[in-house]
Amino acid sequence: MANLGRASAIIGAGTLFSRATGLVRSLVLVAVIGSYGSKAADAFSIAAQLPTNVYELLAAGVITGILVPQIVKAAAHSDGGSRYVSKLLTLGSVVLVAATALMMALAPALIWLYTDGWNGTQKGLAVAFAYWLLPQLLFYGLFALLGEVLNARKVFGPYSWAPTVNNLVSIAGFGVFLLVFGGPFTAVADWDAGMIALLGGTATLGIAMQTFVLLLFWKRTRLHIRPDFGWRGIGLRHVGTLAWWTFLAVVVGQLAGIVQSRVVTQASGEASVTVMVYAWLIFMLPHSIVAMSISTTYFTRLAEEVAAGRLDRVAPNLDESIRAIALFGFGFTAAIGAASVPLSRVFTTDSDGAVPMAWVLCGYLIALVPFGVLLIIRRAFFAFQDTRTPFVFSFVQAALAALGAAVAAVAVAAGLLPLAFLAATVAFTQSLSTYVQLPVALRLLRRHTDTTALRTTWRALGRFAVAAVPAFGAGWAVFLLAGGPAGWTVSDRLLGAIGGGLVGAASLVVYIAALALLRTPELAIAGRLVRRLTGR
């Protein structure tokens, strides 16, 4: 347990630092191209989503959910798994190179697929950015492959710390852009070939460098890797059967994402796709620090226990990880919700965009806790090598999210919903779909393990929720005392960061005090985890 806590702390600290530098990267990017109301920023955002979306479609579910158990099993081989990993990396590299070349050839079609209501000039700018950004697909895939091998070999640190290199490279490159050209350039007509190349090339270089960093730590795996094209005999048929359902789950998720993108891009010039990107960035910050660091280490242990037949340890494993994620999740929900307006001001070039972005952020934020719990539940299915069942509840969520976006578009067309609230409504309906998805997933998990032991888990989450109510109230009171949406916390980007920190801190202090009054035993565990994280 001590080793598990130490690993979680290392991952959490690395993720915290990479996310912090990622925020700085985003701030510099806003200074270059704007955010709220910037059609040029919307063009860049759509192009920047393509490599990650295609990567998710091709490999993410397979790499993060299926291959870890396979690598853990391969460690029992006489060579420690070197031959299996060699074949795996060779196959993955070939597939990624071919897929990257194909997607670059299809760049104009991809931009057309993800946008609606844009004129030819804005689409042209998005395509130009896409040619520079789509090579990231290759490096994203290699980064995930190498990182999951490191995780499976219990070398947890580099995978969480490497993105910092990407952020530092991007910050430097975007800084050079500001020195050479200035900014922000929010109009499509402002951009020429040199500006596009510098911005897009810098973003891709950062992803390439974070992949290279993982190679510096490869010796710790004690694996001897060489190109190996003999792919027979490594269980590809078995992995392919598992991957098929994961692939379908990612497909339905991507289809829902396309519907959402085509709906939201209709609002380009107001709160649109770029605003959703930055709202999602804020939403993912606590999820990445807490949920990903905890779930990564717990998943490796869970995969080992299932492989060894210790099924009686599954429910306690789930209980520990869900409690840990939810304890932090409710606190961050209260703090970020109360500070949503000043935090949003940090990512806008003027105060007019702060409140619209805050609506989008809160639309996502209400699902922070179930989103983290679902990550644990999904990985539990993967530990049992069951990818078909996650497809079922993923399909439910994707269908509801797409339906919600379509209804929002109809409401705008009918004059029932202002265009300025379109993005916030899409975010809200996506969160509602998560609340439907979670109970479906839990009921389906009963096929593999007894979930009645989780009843005490839900009672613990109830205590966290109760503590979050006064925490949000305290933070919101501080925000109102500072002048509210017209106060000093929204007057400037720097003051927005300071104000958001003060509001969020007030919420967290009250949250901790409320947990203490409720005699929450998990509070001591959280304290030890935080001390490990800050100590590392």
TrEMBL record:
Gene Ontology, cellular component aspect: plasma membrane
Cellular compartments annotated: Cell membrane
GO biological process terms held by the UniProt record: lipid translocation; peptidoglycan biosynthetic process; regulation of cell shape
Record membrane topology: Multi-pass membrane protein
Any one Gene Ontology molecular-function term assigned to this protein's record: lipid-linked peptidoglycan transporter activity
Presence of the UniProt keyword Zinc-finger in the record: no
Domain of life per record: Bacteria
Keywords: Cell membrane, Cell shape, Membrane, Peptidoglycan synthesis, Transmembrane, Transmembrane helix
Chief localisation class: membrane
Transmembrane segments: 16-37, 57-76, 88-114, 126-147, 168-189, 195-218, 239-258, 278-300, 321-344, 356-377, 389-413, 419-440, 461-482, 494-518
Keyword flag Translocase: no
PANTHER family membership: LIPID II FLIPPASE MURJ
Protein name: Putative peptidoglycan biosynthesis protein MviN
Gene: mviN
